[in-house]
Fold these 4 entries.
Entry 1:
Amino acid sequence: MSIVTVFRSRLREGVEEEYAAVAQKMSDLVRAVDGFVDQKFYVASDGERVTIVRFRDAASHATWARHPDHLDAQRHGRDHFYSWYDISVCDELHHAVFDSPGEPSGSGVRRDDQS
């Protein structure tokens, strides 16, 4: 099973443009990590941001966690971007996918992965 990182944050006022550039750079870099699975970004109506990133295993997650550009971005984020954040790194215990047949992205396939 994969490793899932859930990163919740709130930005300080006035940093959105600079943050977006750094976030795009990190998104591009993480995609190049062997073992990267996927990532999603969400912004709630109250301004909280959520990033979910999945890695194939702990080793690939550790590669990203130690990446020098990622470490620099983390420091810069604490110093300049974030008013608050909360991060959880978890072992995925169960994974299921359902695609409804006839829907634009649906294949009609259901897959359950359990360890």
Note: Residues 16-31 form the longest helix (16 residues).
Entry 2:
Amino acid sequence: MTRFNNDVTTPAERRHAIHDLFRAHEQKLLQPLLEYLETRNDVRLLGPADAKTRAPTVAVAIKGDPEDIANRLANHKVMCWSGNFYAYRLCEALGVDPDLGALRLSFVHYTQKEEVDQLMTCT
């Protein structure tokens, strides 16, 4: 586990160090998923395929109904969401049916590698 060093003394420095630890963890977990999604011909990654240049939220356009995929993933204990997420015009601009929307996966500092592995093996 990575920790920040004792030179971090002010609250602002601690806040930045913690943010950097969270971000590094999210990127480490996110990059393999992005690479995996790029190999699939039944999904289209929306946004950059580089974890360093994106937020830890992944949206994919699905061939079929994203809500159906979200429900099937829930059966494997993978939590995700589907829909247009109030971005109707953006969906249209990206060539995604806004009435169906996309599948969205979110990463946070407590997301574990095993959860990402589970997602990639159950799809």
Note: Helices lie at 11-39, 66-74, 88-93, 113-122.
Entry 3:
Amino acid sequence: MVRGARQVGKTWLIRDLAHLQNLRLLEFNFEKRPDLISLFSSNDPKEILVNISAFIDSLLSSGATSQTDQEYPKLSFAFLTG
């Protein structure tokens, strides 16, 4: 999760880093989808990953859209620490 002031390059930085590292990026926009905030209700990173995985699995199993399969063919998560 990245937090900071508006218009300072947070989104660009993360997208560029994912691109440079050849990683898939899974973005959650809470302004567009406030219902997704509940996925991050825990302070435990493992529980957050379980919540995200369950959300993605529900999208895939419900056949929400064919685009979903293209967007999330295989998910892997990486934590950047410093």
Note: Residues 10-71 form one domain.
Entry 4:
Amino acid sequence: MFVAAAFCSWCLMRFLSKIGVDLYMLLLLASVGFGLLLSAQGMVADVLGHVTFWAVAFLFFLHGAKIDPRAIRNRLLN
């Protein structure tokens, strides 16, 4: 059964790549879908709004500063 499921997912990914949808695009669409289905409300939405704002700002800072993510992870784990 596992082999059949793996084969079906391989066929699905092959079909999606033929029409121009890669794994990144599929995951992006899935996250949008989950966001629509499981939308936050009230105080949780406010907190998540701030969290996402600062997370995106932090990612842009890391990208602009050209800091290696592995170096950051190693520094935080020590």
Note: Residues 1-39 form one domain.
